[in-house]
Amino acid sequence: MNTLPELNYVQPFLALPKPLYSQVMPQGLSNPRLVIGSASTAGLLGLDVNTLEQADSLQLISGQGVLNTWQPIAMKYTGHQFGQYNPQLGDGRGLLLAQVQHRGSVWDMHLKGAGSTPYSRQGDGRAVLRSSIREFLGSEALAALGIPTTRALCVVDSDTPVYREQAESGAMLMRVSASHIRFGHFEFCSFGKQPQLLQTLCDFVIEQHYPQLIEHEHKYLEFYKHTVHKTASLMAQWQSIGFAHGVMNTDNMSILGETFDFGPFAFLDDYEAGFICNHSDYQGRYAFNRQPNIARWNLSVLAQALLPLIDKEQLVEQLEGFDEVFAAHYFAIMNNKFGLLAPHDVHQPFIEQSLVMLETCKLDYCVFFRQLSDIHEPQVHTYIRNLCLDIRAFDDWYEQYQQTLRRDGQADHEQARASRKQRMNLVNPKYILRNYLAQNAIAAAQQGDYSLVQTLHKVLLNPFDEQPEFSEYANLPPDWGKKLEISCSS
Ligand code: AMP
Ligand code: MG
């Protein structure tokens, strides 16, 4: 296991034409303190997470210094924000320091909050502690749930003041991902009328991420097809776990189908199909139940950007495959959550009706599914039933569930129930990153106590395990914690 200077760095992005990036040095934070590090992200890089606390490492992860093996760049991209094209985007506050090669994989090291760049517009190039902790916990929680996401290596707090609605602590987050290339990169090349640049970028992405396609006759189309499939699969995972992203602008869409850019995101508490987690999303464009449609719309923008390279009919055909890929993944996961074994399309109507019941009854999404494997136990049945706003709707649903299990061919004895419970507990987490839990940890961190952030991270690393010593983290949220409004300012 190595320290940061000992890792194997490269920066292949520098071989790309200049319009795609600017070389920029980070601007350091003063008096940096390590808030938290992720041993599992560090492991991807071959890094010993304990070395991050050392003074020379702390300098590097707080932008006070750079290694001579790093070549920091800010990337240029554009994108559609809330449906409107914005040509002015780019890394306004984050730098791709370098890529790390380790065990056949290559990882971007991206320092977020590293100061202004040519793409900062009016922004200060900084990130605050609150949003850096949210991104750290959010991305590490999704990773532990098995959902594709960018990762986080560490968060650093500091004495540098950053002004949002009020003065806050400046912070930096080291984001780690296989790629920081967004749909917006392709929009920049294409809508900026630079077809040669577009082709160069596509070839770069294919070389880095789809080397098996290099010689393929329709390599650009294949690349698009993979992007459609990965994105559809990601949406199925978000919808089934109850994750609302909040800002699905095309510049926040990863070309690898990873969860990317953690702003006002939220995990659902009470199930509400039209839940809007972004305080600034007045029209509900990015409401929870609109996410798959928005992803498809974003993919249509990407298709448009790729028109100089790919035949329109072929792009449309691939895009039209989105719904089927999404539905296949989504209903397969939902089947598992209900403990059902028949092919995914058999129980689709039951699954849809169950969601209506959850909303009518205002049931907590995570608690409901975690308890579902024991719903035949009188104590659990009564507990869930008493939480319901509409008891008749619950009773009708319960009847349907019993029928569905029988139709699914499931035996109703002790052993069958036990093995079903085992299966269900592997897909229905006991612990999720509820907004109020993040909020409590952030409040303590803002007072200089990082221990709650660390404990919460530890709990979320094993979301499917019982962890009885942490069971309070699985409780229903208090009333004040349910509808926290998360501002976009970060
Ligand atoms: P986001 O809403 O985080 O996806 O950011 C949208 C755009 O605004 C991106 O180009 C960011 O780099 C830029 N941006 C966000 N916050 C800042 C900031 N504090 N300073 C400079 N640029 C920013
Ligand atoms: Mg963004």
Describe the structure.
The chain has 490 residues and is of the alpha+beta class. It has helices at residues 39-45, 55-61, 129-144, 183-191, 195-209, 219-241, 291-306, 312-320, 322-338, 348-361, 365-372, 378-387, 391-407, 414-425, 435-446, 451-460; strands at residues 8-10, 21-23, 33-37, 73-75, 79-81, 84-86, 94-102, 105-112, 127-128, 151-163, 167-177, 243-244, 266-267. A hairpin with a 3-residue loop joins strand 10 and strand 11 (167-177). Helix 6 packs antiparallel against helix 7. The longest helix has 23 residues, at 219-241. The model has no long low-confidence stretch (mean pLDDT 97).
Strand segment count = 13
Query: Could you give the order of the helices and strands?
Result: EEEHHEEEEEEHEEHHHEEHHHHHHHHHH
As a whole number of angstroms, the C-alpha radius of gyration is 23 Å
The span between the termini is 34 Å
Give the overall average pLDDT: 97
Low-pLDDT stretches are none
Shape: globular
Beta-strand proportion: 5-15%
Name the hetero compounds present: adenosine monophosphate, magnesium ion
Count of helical stretches: 16
- Helicity range: 40-55%
What characterizes the major β-sheet?
7 strands, antiparallel
SS class: alpha+beta
